[in-house]
Each structure stands twice: as C-alpha cells, then as structure tokens.
Write a structure and sequence with these properties.
Blueprint (H helix, E strand, L loop, with lengths): L6 E5 L13 H21 L5 E5 L19 H13 L4 E2 L6 H7 L3 H10 L2 H7 L9 H16 L3
Parallel strand pairs: 1-2, 2-3
Amino acid sequence: MTRSRGAIVNILSANALAPMPFVIPAYSLSKAAAFSMTQSLRALVAGQGVRVHAVLPGPVATDMTQGSNVPMASPESVAQAIFDAVGNGEKEIFPDPASAPIGARWRDSVGKLLERQLAGGGTRQFVSEGASCSPSSSTGMVRTAAVWRAYSAKPG
C-alpha cells in the first residue's frame, strides 16, 4: 500500500458519530469503533503517502434498510459522491443529503479538533507541559477540560 501511495476507504455510518442506542446499539457501537480505528490508522500512515478516508452516510437504500420508512439515498449516488470526495482529498465523507449537514458541523467540531491535535503530536505537547493525558491523571484531565472550555468559548 505505501509503495503505491494508495487510499483506504472505510464505509461506516453517520451512527459512528451519533448512535441510536435504543434501536441498533451493536451497529452503532461497531461503527464508532471502526471510525476510531480509521482515525488512528490515518495518523499512523500519514507520512507514508497512504490516505485514509471515513465514509459516514445516512440511510442508503440497501437490503439492510429495506422496509424502513425514512428517506434514503441511492447506492449509486452515494458511490459517486465517495469517488468525488476521495478525488478531492476529503478525509471524512458525508455522501448524501441526510449526512451532509452533520459533515458541515463535524469539520469544525471539538471532536475533529481533538483528532487533529492528537495526530499532530498533541499528546506529546500535553506531556511536555508537565501534564499527562492519561485518564488516571487528574492534572491531565483538568488541562484537557480547560482546552475544551477555551475552544467552546470561541465565537462561531
């Protein structure tokens, strides 16, 4: 993969970001775990020329959604949107009308900010400032909370 400078495209679900615990808990849980794996893999192979994309669609007309009473995108339209987004270098792909508004907010979210910080060595930064990011370290947790408060207070 690294020699060809390829791309990994993981098909997930918008439920990776916002679970439906009372309807499909195991599905939501597995998609959230796969999204976390995708983010980690992206950071691990970033310097090797391998791009890692997460596709987070809303409802798509497939065998799994047959009989559902919600608006769904066609598999063809979702596939085309994925190809276009990979070609444009989008890391998270929200390929349909139901997921597009989530994508617009995700790109500026605290979760995405944290991913960027950690992928860029944010953990090392916290440690070098004398605070650990370990959940067992109250100092690290307080510092992390302060970062989120400062981010949340920003206008917009």
